[in-house]
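Section: protein folds

Sequence with per-residue C-alpha cells
===
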Amino acid sequence: MRKLMTVLVGLLMVVPTVAAARPDADGARDRPLTVMSYNIHHGAGTDGVLDLERIAVLIEQSGAEVVGLQEVDRHWSERSNWVDQPAWLANRLGMHYAYAANLDLPPLNPGEPRRQYGTAVLSKYPIQDFKNTLLPRYPAGEQRGLGVATIIVKGTELRFANTHLTHNNNAERLEQAQKVVQVLGKSHPATLLVGDLNATADAPEIKTMTSVYADTWPEVGVGPGYTIEADNPTKRIDYLLHSRHLRPTEASVPVSNASDHLPVLASFVLS
C-alpha cells in the first residue's frame, strides 16, 4: 500500500507540471489580436452631429484591442468643442493612447492648450514607445505623419503604424508612401500598417506599400470592403496592411453613421 501511495503522489506531482507547460507552448504560437482602422472625422457623423460616444460604442462593440484613428482633434476648435479627443476616448474605453499632432498651432488665448489635429493609437496593451515622423508635404499640402507605436501583445512585440495620406495630390501621396516604407524598413518585428491612405488598391502609392506589406482585405475580407462615403460607400481607401508575422483570419467593414468613413476591422494571429 505504501508503495502504491508513493506512485500516486508522484503522478500528482508530474501531471500539473505537464498541464502548466501546454498553455505556454500554445501561447507561443497563437496570439489572437483584433485591430481596427477608423477615420473618425473629428467625431462628426454623416448626419452632421458631433458625437464621440458613437465612436466609442462602435469600438467597444467591435472588440478591437488596438485601434488606429485618423482626423482626431485635440483642443482644435469649436467644431469639436475644444475637446482632447484621444484622451476622452481612451478614458471612456479604458485604453492606453498615443497621439501624433501633425498640425500643431498655438492657442487662441495665452495659457490654453495648443490646438492640434492628427492621428491617434488606442490600445488595451501598454504602449511602450511612440514616435511620429512627418511625411513629405508639397507647398499647398496639409502636413501628414506616420505614427509608430511599440506595443507588447501577450509577450510579443508589435509595431503598430498609423497614417493618413494626402487626399488631393497623387504625386505627393506617392512620396508619402515611399517615406512610410523607408521609415518602417523591410527588416522588422511584427508590423501592422493601418490608415486612411486615400487611394484605391491599384494606385502606385498603394502598390508601393503592398509590395512590402500584405493587404488584409483581399486575403480574408468578403465583398468590396468599401469605406467611403459612409452612407453610400463606393471606394476602399482605408487599409490594414501586415507583415508576415501576422496571419489574418477575418475582416469586416462595420456599418455606422458616426463618421464619413466606415471603419475596417480584422482579426489576426500574431506569431
